[in-house]
Amino acid sequence: MGEEDFLSLYEYHLNPGLARVFRFMGLEAVEGRAEGALVWDEDGNAYIDCGSGYAVMNLGHRHPRVVAALERQLQKMPLSTRLLLSRPQVELAELLAAVAPGRLRYSFFSNSGAEAVEAALKLARLATGRLKVVAARGAFHGKTLGALSVTWNPAYRNPFKDLFLHVEHVPYGEAEALERAVDEETAAVILEPIQGEAGVVVPPDDYLPRARRVTQERGALLILDEVQTGLGRTGRMFACQHWGVVPDILCLAKALGGGILPVGATVGTREVFRVFEDQPLIHTSTLGGNPLACAVAAEAIRVVREEDLPGEAERKGEKALGVFRELAVKHPQVVREVRGRGLLIGIEARDSGVGGALLEAILRRRVIVVPGLNDFRVLRFAPPLNIPDGLLEEALGRVAEAVEEVAPLADALAGASAE
Fold first, then answer.
1. What is the pLDDT of residues 355-387, one digit of tens each?
2. The domain spanning residue 118 has which CATH number?
3. Which residues on neighbouring strands pair with residue 266, listed in sequence order?
4. For residue range 279-324, what is the model confidence (pLDDT) as tens digits?
5. Is the pTM of this model over 0.90?
6. Are 124 and 146 spatial neighbours (Cβ–Cβ below 8 Å)?
7. Which range of residues forms the domain containing residue 161?
8. Catalytic annotation present for 140
9. Which of these is catalytic: 108, 109, 132, 225?
């Protein structure tokens, strides 16, 4: 079956609109296998993966230690009876308590980032007895109903807005606006330490500390969504550690599954989890915390610690940021701004037309980067944290070539997109 025939099947059985986008961008190759920072399509072409499945592959594809952990647990017991105690679940919770900042010691396990956020919102309401949640403009916390309530993008929210929680969105990075919004009715403030889908937006240095202070003063909880930034991606185990901030609830997923399985975790303090003392079944998940996922996640955490992947992200991120910022100086008609921490880097194009052309030029050179879902001007460069230095150099060189290619056309592209 040819690639076009396969894309037609995708269009017919899965998502017609997305299939048209794939066809327009020339993305008709079918992924076949992957290892480390490389992905091969079914025709044998190799791509350098610098998108990591939207920051899922912090350890790269098929890390041998994580694969081995999966195989060991698979031979024992992949899913749980849900009645007997699960050793992999307890071991994962113990590991998370060891690496999480501050007094975060309890975990609820689910299957995705959106589910982790759903649990956090429910726990915050139960723990405080309040209803209001303050979130940020530009935020992305998932698309299930509760998570979508605190997600910003109106295109995702408006069709369902009548069913939403009591949420107030305030400008991200503006501490004064946040402080004005938090009142005696606020159950929680939910923030990403660095906004991912909004285009890798890094807040001012006083922002998270002030968010922490105002929530403590007014009896609200602070929820930090580290689904994309957690487990080493930004050069620290958790991005909140850049600012020395400890939340009441921490949401994790993506890289927690080691690039092998979907796993979500909602990690909180004893005060937050006290609700389970009287109502142990108030929030449950049939498949969340299953032995297979927990064994994989525990090994992923061990790899992150033992291979010092936060340190690798910091070192390699400094190099990549330097290269991209030089490109921005040389070709401002293409690259408007570069920002990020560690190996979560946003390359903001002059406008969406230039951004689309740049994405196409990069993908044609078989480097995978991903756009911001809330801002299509921004391309995210987020390779595995253990990408070999030589492969990183190759990827940076190909991105530079793509910028050089787009530069002479930038003015015409920008003019066309403005019309």
1. 999 999 999 999 999 998 888 899 999 999 999
2. 3.40.640.10
3. 108, 251
4. 999 999 999 999 999 999 999 999 999 999 999 999 999 999 999 9
5. yes
6. no
7. 64-306
8. yes
9. 225
